[in-house]
Amino acid sequence: MNTLVTNNYARLSSILFLFPLILLTAIILFLYSQGALSVDGYTHIQKDCFLLINHRLGQYPTLQFNLTQIGDALISLSLLSIFIIYAPRIWEALLPGLLVSLLFSSLLKPLFAVPRPAAVFDTTSFIIVGKKLSGFNSTPSGHSITIFTVLAVLLFALAPQKLNNKIIWFFLAGSIGLLVAFSRVGVGAHYPLDVITGGIAGYISGLIGIFTSRNYKIFTWVGNKKCYPVFILAFLIGGAVLIGKIINENLIIFYLALACLLVSLYKTITIYAKK
Predict the structure, then answer these.
(1) What is the rounded distance in angstroms from the CA atom of residue 67 to the CA atom of residue 78?
(2) Separation between Cα atoms, residue 53 and residue 203, nearest integer Å
(3) Distance, C-alpha 124 to centroid of its chain
(4) Distance in angstroms (rounded) separating the CA atoms of residues 259 and 231
(5) Alpha helices per DSSP H over the chain
(6) Residue spans per domain, the chain
(7) What does the CA dihedral 227, 232, 238, 244 come to, rounded to 10 degrees?
(8) Res 70: pLDDT
(9) pLDDT tens digits, 70-87
(10) How far apart are CA 246 and CA 240, in angstroms?
(11) Distance between CA 32 and CA 18 in Å, rounded?
């Protein structure tokens, strides 16, 4: 599998950055044409769309609350932890990609300072699932950045060679990303454009992670068995945090993430002990 990932990454061209840049430009031009480049304009223009999506998705609160957790780096990385053993090249791209995504989120949220829906709209007019968020850090959606960073790395890492299979694979990966991203609207935490711009930023982060891992050997230590104790410790800490989440919220996705982490922990310890 590692060879497949390496070969797939080697085929990629920097022209892939063009598509997200075109999308961002189109969004900016749309907001400009609607006089919505201000914070008030940005929130007002999305009110009807936000309420519509929120009420439709909010009819399935348990599903939305589980889906939205996948945008948490702990959950998504736990689900992918087994790739450290079988396809470390994926993690070589994930790590720099997620660092870039963290940078995007940390810089852009305070820069735009857009209030959350709960800070703008009457909270009785829409559905809130989980904790009510009312700060001024709505744009872009951090969960959307994270999930699209992860999906971009996986999208190109595991892409089939046959065109028909590749189209199906891209469609499935994109659909999963949109479902997770728009769950942020479903739980009442973000506006639609928050998750769209977050998804675009995440896609760019994933591409940067891929090209960084391809051109620079910064994270090749991931596949070195001598470094497995680092991951063993990380798995143990992650498992403890997940157990805490299960005690507090008892969501199915937490059990699934914990199961993946325990399998990876067992395999990693077994391989390291035989080293």
Answers:
(1) 15
(2) 23
(3) 29
(4) 16
(5) 2-10, 18-33, 39-45, 47-57, 61-69, 73-79, 83-86, 88-112, 117-120, 142-157, 163-186, 192-215, 228-249, 252-273
(6) 2-221, 224-275
(7) -160
(8) 95
(9) 999 999 999 999 999 999
(10) 10
(11) 21
